[in-house]
Design brief:
Four Helix Bundle (Hemerythrin (Met), subunit A); 2 strands; two-stranded antiparallel ribbon; about 5% strand; mainly alpha
Amino acid sequence: MTRDVAPLPGYPETYGLLAAILQDATQDWRGELFDEKIGPDAMSWQVRPGSYSMGAVMLHMAAVEVFWFEEFPLGRQWDPEERKLLQWDETDVDKGVWASPPAEDFEWYCALLDKVRTRTLDSIKEWPPSDSFISRWEKQTSLRWVFGHVIQHESYHGGQVVMLHELWKSKAQG
């Protein structure tokens, strides 16, 4: 068996390869839940009040992608309705504060992530060269780092979604 991640066509090679890796990371964690019918109760269930839920984590994943791929490198302003939907201002992961997500099923959340991903892939085509740096917060940040950070973020939180689903199943079974 041969496995490879080939650069997505239509991008400079570095961005095309990183975009393919990001797509692969998403497919990997979603593949763990492929055969599951995950309803709104499971998506909004929190380990404890104010803590993680599958839905809140997926909203956070989408919000981080909007920030790092659109706002940070391109200076785009967020649509206030989308910012509210993604609960950007209600969530502070560094302090362990997670908002209560909408009571929607897994497919709804995946469709929302897919909508953001489509914009991400379009936005990358407008990025400066991959060796460019952006000055913000008294730091120089390369766009390669941004991409790597979001790939790591996707993998980390995707794994959390899978684990939260397992916890939900064990809770539901008794």
